[in-house]
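Quick start: what a row looks like.
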Amino acid sequence: MIGIVGTSGHQAQIQTKYHEWYGMSLICLITLRIRCYRLMVQVGRSGLTHARFFFNLQILVITILAIAGCDLQNKMLYYPSQSVPSQESLAADNIAFWPSGVEGYRGYISTAAVNSRRGTVVVFHGNAGTASDRVYYVKALVPLGFRVILAEYPAYGGRKGGLGEAAFVNDARETLHLAMEKCGRPIFLLGESLGCGVAASAAKDASVPIEGIVLITPWDTLLSVAKEKFPWLPVSLLLRDKYDTVDNMKAFKGRIAIVAADRDEVIPVRHALALYESLPGSRKMWVIQGAGHNDWPELVGPSLWKELADFIEGSKRI
């Protein structure tokens, strides 16, 4: 079932550096073409055979891809901020370092009192900024009776570690184990953009039972989006990270809510629809009308948050 949403709500504080993806890929393409032209001139002047020319060209292409692939993916995919909020700022937002102080923290936990405990929602945010920028999830979910943990990634927000799918997913699984230990069941996941890929991968760890998942502006696979954005690049060679949400979700037995923005300029809505159609079990999709990839929180009101919460909790079948 797919629903249409068009209400008002909170404002996102994220800016996507999406145009840098094009800049980096064009630099690689221009560099490759310049070197190829020089090789062609060399062929004409020195009498190199065509076989020798194409052999040199293959070596050049492989070399450029090997060098670019080491860094290009991270420049395109991850935009970490190292900012760490002050205690005063955290208190104003009703969150605190979690599981303890700033040393060794893994994210932030909501501190506001709730009328009832419906469970804990662990949020994995998008590729820019930090977890502390996503306070709008706390404001939306705490009044509905949920404890909220805003998980932070390695190499973001001053945390140690490296960028990449393996580092993020391993860290996410550690966060979920700790959340289970400290908060108990039920535990729900919420992913946003890149965080959908992290949440889907982390949910495969059967040692931490996940009752339900909300995926907001997700892709089906990272590779499918990259191929669409950069048809002139061999992205399958450049991408080390896969974030294959379709494959990671195929065995998930809990409830899955998909939220898409119908004017998403970064991850077009067709990718969310492809993911939705691949999902097993209990699922529902909402499409936020008039929303883009970053401004969707402005178009979401309390009624949608309640629908999402009721659906993943199973208290109301929609």
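That is the whole record. Residues 89 and 95 are 9 Å apart (CA to CA). Residues 6-22 have pLDDT under 50 and may be disordered.
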